[in-house]
Amino acid sequence: MRILDVAGLRKYFGGLAATSDVAFHVDQGEIVGLIGPNGAGKTTLFNLISGAIKPDAGTIRFKETNIAGMKPYRICRAGIARTFQSVQLFSNMSVFHNVLVGSLFGATKQKAARFDMVGPSDLLELVGLAGMGDLRAMDLRLANQKRLEIARALATRPDLLLLDEVMAGLNPTEVAEAMHLVRRISGRGITIVMIEHVMKAIMSICSRVIVLHYGQKLAEGKPEEIARDKTVIEVYLGE
Amino acid sequence: MKHATKNVSFAAGLVAAALLLVALPQWASSYGVIFTTNILMYVIVTLSWVIFSGPTGYISLATSAFFGIGVYTAAVLSEDLPLPLMILIGGCISFCLAFLVGAITLRLRGMYFTMFTFALVQLINNFVHWYEVNITGTLGRVVASLESDTIYYTILVIFCLVVLVSYLIRRSRFGLALRSIGESEEAAAHAGVNVTLVKVAAFAIGAFFMGAVGAVMTMRWTYIDPPTAFDIRLSFMPLLMAIFGGMGQLYSPIIGSAIFAVLEEVLTTKFPYYYMLLFGGAMLLVILFMPHGIEGVIRKLGTARKRERVPGKT
Q1: Contact yes or no for B191 and A52 at CB 8 A
Q2: Total domains present in chain A
Q3: pLDDT tens sequence across B245-283
Q4: How many CA atoms does the CB half-sphere of A5 hold within 13 Å?
Q5: Are B184 and A91 a contacting pair at CB < 8 A?
Q6: Do B176 and A101 touch (CB under 8 A)?
């Protein structure tokens, strides 16, 4: 079943096409990787899907509803949560309160009923922040701040989770932990689309990979197909 | 145990302060009553301002617009209506205007929002001026004044209400949403917070109290015209007072604005010629040496005392 279906999506910044006629779909339960060189339009695509910016043309169907141009809080309540490339926490609030905002405002009653009830503390434990609820968010180290963003996103009880470079800036151990976490989230039945430059992670946990280049979809396929694709190697992966 | 005694003494202090305030007209001179009314007015205005601007960090200079609307509403209606109803109407008109203005302008960020609110005061001031000259053919109105004790008690009631509302907002999910908006508006929106509605509602609740207090203060002035009602200085006062007191705790803007108002009164009476100079100097010192206002100083003293206590125990 298709949970997300994007067609003819276009966004211009002045004369620059950040996204031009992008079309792809995501099936329920998948982990889809979104890769491409810097400036390829990956984050713009996330911003369009999550409602941070409005598309100039095209449709974004999420579970049969066209959400293109809807306000971010509505899209979040409909079931799409996201993290940010540059961490966006409520820095002076406690770790617990960061997650609480997500569960109080993002999780609608229908959504709460569909999932097991998990409170902010359970989510902190899931992402590996057990016992840190009283700390200020700004006092966490980067890896934990990224985990907190994931916990806050999960608190809204999403069906679809958009992860924007959650592994950037992490050391190898932390990357391994993050990969494990993504798998566990996926195991809870949450569909994931992740932007990532850490190829090892993309190759080992994604079921499908989409490559963007200059705002257009360059290639799409299983990780091993993408790794062998000549054009992809040329523009992005290199030798 | 220690915590409990601290709470009890705090509660006792509150009750004592409440009794002193309620009985004020019995023990203080009439100047004292008017002076306290003035202080409470500043405290109310500052608390109303902090409801929205404190947690979100949006600096509004529209205070005197909402205050002035209350003043004018009362001036127009004072002949016909009882005081409580007039206060309510003044507050509601300010609330509605803030809601409308907020819905249009709260997508502006930072400096642009501040500039707009500044312009709003001028706009309304000049509109009322124009209306009075061209439509009603008068400029300025004489208001039926009330006894200073009545005004004092009305202001005291509004003060209690604004403290209560501020307290409840701080503890509610609405307050949590406001804080999250101040921390990162983008993240709040993507976590499901209807940021526009929350901001507009908080802005309007603050404006309600500004209008209400304006409606009461009219009764003390006997004569008003647009420049008095929409005095732009009142827009800067809550901002300065909140910076002076701090905004992290409920008590900080109260203490800040009270001390500030007393200071202003003392300086104007004792040094009428150097008042602005002294005031400006004091403000500079505060900003330089008390970055978190009085609240920051209190917090620092608190941690210093704790540090002293710990080694004594072991």
Answers
A1: no
A2: 1
A3: 888 888 899 999 999 889 888 888 888 888 888 888 888
A4: 8
A5: yes
A6: yes
Task: Tell me whether residue B104 is exposed, middle or buried, using C-beta atoms within 10 angstroms of its C-beta: 0 to 12, 13 to 18, 19 or more.
Answer: exposed
**Chain B: closest CA distance from residue A190 (Å):** 17
Dihedral-angle region of residue B249 (phi above 0 means left; psi in -120 to 50 means alpha; beta otherwise): beta
Chain B: closest CA distance from residue A236 (Å): 30
Residue contact B192–A152, C-beta within 8 A: no
Cβ–Cβ gap B192/A91 under 8 Å: no
Q: Which residues of A143-167 are buried (b: 16+ CB within 10 A; e: fewer)?
A: bbbbbbbbbbbbbbbbbbbbbbbbb
State residue B183's pLDDT score: 96
Write the burial class of residue A236 (CB in 10 Å: 0-12 exposed, 13-18 middle, 19+ buried).
Answer: buried
Q: Are strands A2-13 and A160-164 parallel, antiparallel or unpaired?
A: unpaired
Identify which of A73, A91, A104 has the shortest CB distance to residue B189.
A73
Residue A59 within a domain: no
pLDDT surpassing 60 at residue B314: no
Place of tokens 């994604």: A206
A84, with CB counted inside 10 A (0-12, 13-18, 19+), is buried
pTM recorded for the entire structure: 0.90
Q: What whole-number distance in Å separates Cα of residue A149 and Cα of residue A178?
A: 12
Residue A144 CA to residue A168 CA, distance in Å, equals 13
Q: In what helix (H) or strand (E) does residue A218 lie, and over which residues does it extend?
A: strand A216-221
Residue B236 tokens, joined: 């800067």
Q: ipTM for the complex? A: 0.93
The tokens describing A121, both together, are 């503390």
Substitution target in A86, A105, A111 with the highest count of B β-carbons within 10 Å is A105
Q: Determine, for residues B186 and A104 on separate chains, whether the beta-carbon distance falls below 8 Å.
A: no
Q: Does residue A85 lie within any of the structural domains?
A: yes
Residue B34 token pair: 């008017």
Contacts of B193 in chain A (CB under 8 A): 73, 101, 105
First to last CA, chain B: 19
Q: What are chain B's domains? A: 36-313 (1.10.3470)
Domain with A133 in it: what CATH number?
Answer: 3.40.50.300
- Most A CBs within 10 A among B56, B106, B190, B200, hence the mutation to make, goes to B190
Per residue in A60-106, pLDDT tens? 999 989 999 999 999 999 999 999 999 999 999 999 999 999 999 99
Of B176, B180, B190, the CB nearest to A82: B190
> Which of chain B's residues have a Cβ under 8 Å away from the Cβ of A106?
191-192
Q: Which helix (H) or strand (E) holds A126?
A: helix A120-127
Average pLDDT, stretch B124-135? 89
Tell whether A135 is covered by a domain: yes
Q: Is residue A220 part of a domain?
A: yes
Q: Which residues form the domain of A122?
A: 28-54+66-237
> Interface of chain A against chain B, CB under 8 Å?
50-52, 71-73, 76-77, 81-82, 84, 88-93, 97, 100-102, 104-107, 152-153, 155-156
